[in-house]
Amino acid sequence: MNPRSTSVLLIVAAVAVAAGGDGAPAYRLDPARVGWQALTFEASKLLIKARTEVRFALLPRLEAEAELVAEDGAVAPSGATVARITLDSTMRKRRSIIDAWLDAGDARALQQRSLQTGHKPYQRTDRFTAGGVGRHRLEPRDEPESKLGPGAWSVRKSGRQP
Questions:
Q1: Which of 13, 71, 138, 149 fits a disulfide with 134 by CB distance 3.0 to 4.6 angstroms?
Q2: Structural domain span for residue 18
Q3: Can you give the pLDDT at residue 93?
Q4: Is residue 16 within 8 Å of 10, Cβ to Cβ?
């Protein structure tokens, strides 16, 4: 299984657990039902090591909104809190951080952001809207720029998907 498939599988599993994977019909992301704040998975074979940490946090709405991309028709949080699930994976010299912001009241997806470092770095943000997805991608122009981080990357692409 490739690292991207593993990350997607882990985030789906984490959301299922957070949203009441015990079979309960409610999809509220209640910290009392989640029962964890961080899970760590590690694997190694010969000289190759991989590590993934899954973190769950409830953020005040204002703090979360500061991290959500402004997008026409964006899905807005319905309550006072927003759930953020983060997958932080490292394998060899590549690191992948995937954040998913979910409405804590009904588990609707608000935004997903992927940051890849190492070989071919990029940051992609998907902001969910009533009519589709706003996509925003950042890439460094060259190797020196890649060391500055996504805020300083100069190659920017944006679009929408239904």
A1: 71
A2: 3-161
A3: 87
A4: no
